[in-house]
Amino acid sequence: MKALSIPDVLAEVAVLVKPHFGKGRPADYIPQLADVPGDKFGMAVRTVDGGEHVIGDADEAFSLQSITKVLALGLALNRIGDEIWTRVGKEPSGTPFNHLSLLEAERGVPRNPFINAGALAVTDVLMNVTRDPAALVRDFGGFLCGERLEIDPAVAASELAHAWQNRAIANLMRGQGTIEHEPEAVVAAYSRQCALTMSCRQLARAFLPLAAGGFSPVAEETIFPDRLTRRLNALLLTCGIYDSVGSFAYRVGLPAKSGVGGGIVAVVPGKATVAVWSPELDRFGTSVVGTAALEAFSQITNCSVL
Ligand code: GLU
After folding, report:
1. CA of 220 to the centre of ligand 1 (A)
2. For position 269, what pLDDT does the model report?
3. What pLDDT score does 3 carry?
4. Average pLDDT per run of 10 along the chain, which is 306 residues long?
5. 68-194, which class in CATH?
6. Which class in CATH covers the domain with range 6-65+196-301?
7. What pLDDT, on the 0 to 100 scale, is given for residue 1?
8. Can you tell me the distance from the alpha carbon of 237 to that of 92, in angstroms, rounded to the nearest whole number?
């Protein structure tokens, strides 16, 4: 990274992203998310050596949505190890996050754990170890960021009430034998998981093990073996940003995960995590301002891994 201080970089990024407001739209397929003001912007950087820097609405909790899929996968990998890869693949899908078109051709094995079908398979696996996978994910996230986290009940209910596509996916997979539990229970657990909230500051802290060889400086504990950490970052780089992951890698060059709540968390291996939140999304479901912010951050600091 260049000598410019991180607070200076964040201030510069906040100016550079201004022209990008108004280009996207908050998610509207979950009514509760459509109500979040589009002009929100927060960013947090947490370095592996303990530095923490924030700007804007970095302490406002937002809906994590798809970002929770990384926490759920981490838990599943820690609990059942590589066996998870018999249930879900490791390839980019090239289709929108909630599509089921590939499932029928590929016998119910989702392309990767970060599209909805893959996340539903992971939830199904976690249901073997707990009756409440969403609470497990919430508590894992809370452990990693050192604070108690909440699942927003209104967002969870709103999501479940509109989860027709996810129900279709879960039912198809149940029919193909790649989901073992009752589809409605899997969708309900997954919807609650997606409604977990965090601020940018908490998110940057929670993902720090992915930048620190698997060690959480916040929890003061090794969360993942180093090799697994590298593999999780490989999955984020190739599958973390829906079906625009290629152009995201081209622009930002960092492993990252986005969610339709407008959050994106990026990993600078060996150095830092960067969390950004701004609710207006592009047509693929990724924050427009958030992507621009990470692109600017990565260019100014020259921290791209590519
Ligand atoms: N709750 C969302 C869904 O399953 C998560 C989508 C996302 O953030 O990508 O539709």
Report:
1. 31
2. 96
3. 64
4. 82 98 92 91 96 98 98 94 92 79 79 94 96 98 98 95 94 94 98 98 98 96 95 96 93 97 97 98 96 97 88
5. alpha beta
6. alpha beta
7. 46
8. 10
Of ligand 1's atoms, which has the minimum distance to the CA of residue 285? 9
Residue matched to tokens 């970002």: 67
Looking at the chain, which residues constitute the CATH 3.40.710.10 domain(s)?
6-65+196-301, 68-194
Local structure of 276: helix, strand or coil: strand
At 101 the pLDDT is 72
Q: How far is the CA of 194 from the centre of ligand 1 (A)?
A: 7
| pLDDT at residue number 180 | 96
Q: In angstroms, what is the span from residue 66 Cα to ligand 1's centroid?
A: 5
Task: Compute the distance from residue 116 Cα to the ligand 1 centre, in Å.
Answer: 7
299: Cβ contacts below 8 Å, ≥ 6 apart: none
Cα(248)–Cα(267) distance, integer angstroms: 13
User: Which residue, chain included where needed, has tokens 């009756």?
Assistant: 131
Q: Classify residue 101 by burial, with Cβ atoms within 10 Å: 0-12, 13-18, 19+.
A: exposed
DSSP output for 169-225: HHHHHHHHTS--S-HHHHHHHHHHHHTEEE-HHHHHHHTGGGTTTTEETTTTEE-S-
CB contact set of 8 (below 8 Å; sequence gap of 6+): none
**Residues in the ligand 1 pocket, defined by CB under 6 Å:** 65-66, 97-98, 116, 159, 166, 194, 259-260, 285
Ligand 1 centroid vs 196 CA: distance in angstroms?
Answer: 12
pLDDT at position 7 is 96
Per-residue tokens: 66: 């798809």
Atom of ligand 1 nearest to the CA of 163: 10
For residue 68, what are the contacts with CB-CB under 8 A and spacing of at least 6? 137, 141, 193, 194, 196, 259
